[in-house]
Every structure is written in C-alpha cells, then in structure tokens.
C-alpha cells in the first residue's frame, strides 16, 4: 500500500509538470493556417484556373522575350495591363540599367545546296548580326586547340562558313528525357544530402577561364580573316533540339561579331563527315536580325495588392519574364510568371484583404546574371559589397548564399518580410529549398500540410542556384525557390527551340499556382515578419 503522503507528492509534482508544459506551449508560437481559406484557394485555382491562358499569351502570342527586345517590351506592357485588369494597384514598369542594346531576329533559313541538298535546323546566337540577305559559301571545318593552330588556317577562311568544333557523340535515348522525383530522391533532399552540387575547384575555374579566353581569341581571328559566318552545334540535346544563347556583345560600341548560328548536332555531323571525305560542302544562309539602340534600359513589371494594418510591410512573389530566343520561353520562365500572376489573380478573385502588402515582380535580365532583380533589391532594400566573382560562385553552393561583406541597407530593409520565386520549369511543386534557414522549417511544414495530397511535402536546407531568389538571399533577406519535378527541363526545354507551350504540364501549373497563392496569403497574414538567417561575421549592416 502506497503512503498517502507519497501519493500527494506525486499529484503535486504532476500538476507542476503540467503547468510547466502548458506554459512552454504558450511560449512556442504555433503557426496558424486558415484551412477554410486554403480550401477556397484550392477551389479557385484548380477549378477556375487562368494560368494556361496567361501562359499562351506570353508564349504563343508574344513569343520569346530577350531583355531589350520588342518581345520583352510587349510582355512588360501586356503583364502590366493584365494585372491592372485583375484589380492590382500601383502597377508600373520600373526601369533599371542601363542594360545595353536589345536584339531580335525575324527569320533564319539554312540549307546545304551541295553536294546533296538538305535543310538545316539552325538558330542565330543572340547579339550577332544578320547576313543582309542570302549568302552562299563553302564550309571549312577547323580544329583549333590553341593559338598555335591559327597558322594552319591563315589566309584560307575569307568568305567561308567556319565550323569551329569537333563533333560530339550522339547517343540513343535509352532513358526517357522526362522525369519526376521519386520518393527516394525527395527523402534524400529532406535529409539535406546536397549530392554532388555545382562547385568548381580552382583548377576547373582556371581551365574554364582559359577556354573562354581562347574562344574570344578564335572569334577575333575568324573576323580578322574575313570569315562569312560561324557554325556551331548544340552542346547538349539532339533529335532536332537546339540549345542556343548569346554570341555577341550588348554594348552598342563593341566591335560587331560575325554572324553565328547553332545547328542541330545531327546536321553538324553530316556536314563534318562529308568534309572529312574531301568533298566540298556549300551552304546558303539567310539571317534577318536587328539591334535595338533606342532604349538601353531594362524594365521589371511590378504591381501590388495593398495591405491593411501592416501595409508598409512587404511580401513578394515573382519570377523572370525574359527568355532566350530559340523557343518561346515557356518553361524558362513563362511558367513561373504565369504561376505568380495566377496566384495574385486567385487572391483578388477571392476578395482577400491581406494585412501586409503583396507585391508581384516580373523580372528582366535574369538570363544575363539576375540583373533586374539585383537592381531592384539594391534600389529598395540593400546592397551587398560582395565581389562579383564571389557572387557567381555562391549561386551554386548547397545550403544557400551568404553575404561576404558589409550590407548597405535602405529604409525598406526592415519592412521586408519574404520573397517566393518559381523558375525551375513546368514541374509541380514538391516542397521548398530553405536556403540554410532552419527557422522557417515549422512554418513551411504547417503551410504545406494542406497540400500533401497534391505531392508537396519536402523541405530541405539546400539551395537551388542561379535564379532571382538569390538577389534577396545574398543581402540577408528571406528569399525562397520551390522544389519542382524536373520533367524535361535540363534534357529538352531549358534554353532550347523546344521551350514552347506544348511542353507545359497544365495540371502541374494549376497545383503550383495554388501553393504559391497559399504561401503568399499565409505570409501576408501572419502576426510576425518572416524569420531571417543570422548575418555571418563581417556582414554587418550599415544604413544608407
């Protein structure tokens, strides 16, 4: 039999423990989620979606959106007008720059005419000139591994089309080019296994610099020799998919480059093999391209849903609207733009009255180095004194970027809450990269809980590099990119002629729009601003 005094002591101790646990629970804030609003957002976004209609306007009607091009200006105007039509306020095109001259091309045709005629799949490199009409010339296949090889071609290239690269092997596609993350892959990310990452050793960096320097010297040599045009092949992709980016300078005072085209690797291979047999090859090439010097600035489209009691605090969402020119920039990144626009459309359709101001920003200049978002962050929030070379490397470090020098803050720095970005193609959202900020884990876990049935549940401390959330993260502001299924992003669409509307997965876009809208709503309504990572030593703030 237990002593009654001992029983009373147990009861007293138990009561004290209960009171202590209750007090502790009150100290720890439980992330509140309005489940009824989450239900309404799902219904509007899944059953009355406009995301694919928005995407069709950007891709089918406007087309590619190279920064500074007529397509980019048309996209700026169209998105500004559409956001205004949906009821957003303070809609504007905010300039940054100067960016440099724009460039566009209207048409290209390329044909082998001798010895056996056939058409070539070809696209011009951006910021390279046209041919001023059809040009017919013989092709010369060169092999230049160093400056010492220039002598072999001295006096032999005038008026010729020059192929500059040794052919790569084309392999059969035994594995489907499209993919979704498996449960095992998502678990690995959730366990914060960064995998191989994209980091360069000092030796790799030096080798890369040497290759770039040699490429510049080769271009100068070909121009001095009077070559008519340069022909390259797509370094990745096959089956008629051509990946093409830039080949000339945006500086209107720079020495003009040669006309330059990237062609399908299979066509490059056929031409190479004919030339290696000692048989001459003639090509007819016609490129209609144009430089645009009338406005050297870049522009971001910006609009707001104005807040109420915390309206001076800002929650942001967006993605980059600029694209390369081979396709119509569908997965990179009309997808992200359309999702961000759909998210604010959903909130306006539901009559949401956010506490904080929700600001959407559609960036330009991302493809040239996050230029539009960096300029915006510098103007409104803060500027990092990190050196440019360090910035480039940080973009690919697993775990997130971190300021390496003093941060010069602007008045808006302490009023900023969080930025959400979408720029990894057409795949559905599977979770969030937390950018090394573990304080956001319980917040995101609570926000994702209503959408587990839609496949979104993974949180990782990893960073995904190379897109506009880094402009915020590098000055100590919370900026996040969502984890997305890869689908065909790296294998078929990213910067290619196949980056078109038809490669977009409609159901994935609807799912992403719903989650984006929910995240923005939750951030705008919570009591506190978003938690920030502690600034590392040496990255102290200095107010401007």
Q: Short summary of the structure?
A:
The protein is of the alpha/beta class and 544 residues long.
Write a structural description.
The protein is of the alpha/beta class and 544 residues long. The chain has 14 helices and 19 strands. It has an eight-stranded mixed β-sheet, with helices on both faces. An eight-stranded mixed β-sheet has the order 3-2-9-5-6-7-8-4, covered by helices on one side. The chain has a three-stranded mixed β-sheet with strand order 13-14-19. α2 runs antiparallel to α14. The radius of gyration is 27 Å and the shape is elongated.
Tag the structure with descriptive keywords.
544 residues, alpha/beta, Aminopeptidase, Glucose Oxidase, domain 1, eight-stranded mixed sheet
According to CATH, what is the topology of the largest domain?
Aminopeptidase
Percent of residues in β-strands:
15-25%
Low-confidence stretches: 1-28, 387-400
Average pLDDT rating: 90
Looking at the overall shape, the CATH architecture of the largest domain is 3-Layer(aba) Sandwich
Radius of gyration: 27 Å
Structural class: alpha/beta
Distance between the termini: 75 Å
Major beta-sheet overview: 8 strands, mixed
> Globular, elongated, flat, extended or rod-shaped: what is the shape?
elongated
Largest beta sheet: strand ordering = 1-10-12-11-15-18-16-17
CATH class of the largest domain: Alpha Beta
Number of domains: 2
CATH superfamily heading of the largest domain: Zn peptidases
Number of helices: 14
The overall strand count is: 19
């Amino acid at each position: 039999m237990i002593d009654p005094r001992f029983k009373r002591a147990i009861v007293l101790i138990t009561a004290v423990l209960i009171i202590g646990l209750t007090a502790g629970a009150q100290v720890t804030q439980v992330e509140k989620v309005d489940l009824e609003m989450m239900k309404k957002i799902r219904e509007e976004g899944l059953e009355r979606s406009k995301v694919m209609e928005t995407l069709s306007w950007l891709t089918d009607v406007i087309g590619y959106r190279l920064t500074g091009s007529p397509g980019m200006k048309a996209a700026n105007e169209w998105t500004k007008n559409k956001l205004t039509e949906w009821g957003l306020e303070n809609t504007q095109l905010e300039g940054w720059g100067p960016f440099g001259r724009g460039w566009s091309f209207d048409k290209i045709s390329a044909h082998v005419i001798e010895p056996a005629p056939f058409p070539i799949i070809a696209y011009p490199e951006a910021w390279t000139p046209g041919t001023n009409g059809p040009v017919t010339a013989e092709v010369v296949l060169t092999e230049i591994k160093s400056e010492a090889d220039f002598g072999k071609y001295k006096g032999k290239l005038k008026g010729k089309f020059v192929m500059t690269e040794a052919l790569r092997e084309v392999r059969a596609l035994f594995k489907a080019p499209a993919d979704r993350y498996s449960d095992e892959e998502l678990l690995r990310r959730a366990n914060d296994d960064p995998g191989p990452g994209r980091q360069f050793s000092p030796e790799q960096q030096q080798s890369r610099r040497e290759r770039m320097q040699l490429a510049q010297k080769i271009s100068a040599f070909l121009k001095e020799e009077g070559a008519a045009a340069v022909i390259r092949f797509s370094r990745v992709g096959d089956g008629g998919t051509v990946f093409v980016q830039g080949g000339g300078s945006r500086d209107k005072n720079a020495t003009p480059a040669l006309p330059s085209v990237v062609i399908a690797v299979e066509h490059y291979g056929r031409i190479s093999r004919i030339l290696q047999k000692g048989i001459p090859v003639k090509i007819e090439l016609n490129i209609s391209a144009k430089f645009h010097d009338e406005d050297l600035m870049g522009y971001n489209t910006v609009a707001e849903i104005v807040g109420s009691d915390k309206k001076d605090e800002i929650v942001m969402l967006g993605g980059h609207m600029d694209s390369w020119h081979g396709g119509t920039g569908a997965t990179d990144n009309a997808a992200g733009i359309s999702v961000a626009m759909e998210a604010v459309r959903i909130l306006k359709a539901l009559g949401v009255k956010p506490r904080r101001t929700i600001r959407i920003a559609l960036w330009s200049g991302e493809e040239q180095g996050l230029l539009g978002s960096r300029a915006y962050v510098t103007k409104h929030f803060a500027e990092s004194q990190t050196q440019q070379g360090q910035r480039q490397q940080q973009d690919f470090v697993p775990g997130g970027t971190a300021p390496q020098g003093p941060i010069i803050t602007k008045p808006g720095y302490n009023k900023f809450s969080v930025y959400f970005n979408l720029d990894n193609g057409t795949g559905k959202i599977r979770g969030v990269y937390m950018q090394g900020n573990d304080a956001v884990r319980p917040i995101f876990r609570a926000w994702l809980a209503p959408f587990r049935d839609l496949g979104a549940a993974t949180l990782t401390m990893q960073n995904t590099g190379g897109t506009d959330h880094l402009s915020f993260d590098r000055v100590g502001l919370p900026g996040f990119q969502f984890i997305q299924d890869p689908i065909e992003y790296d294998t078929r669409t990213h910067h290619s002629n196949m980056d078109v509307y038809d490669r977009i997965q409609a159901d994935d876009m609807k799912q992403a729009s719903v989650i984006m809208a929910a995240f923005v709503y939750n951030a705008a309504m919570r009591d506190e601003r978003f938690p920030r990572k502690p600034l590392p030593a040496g990255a102290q703030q200095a107010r401007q």
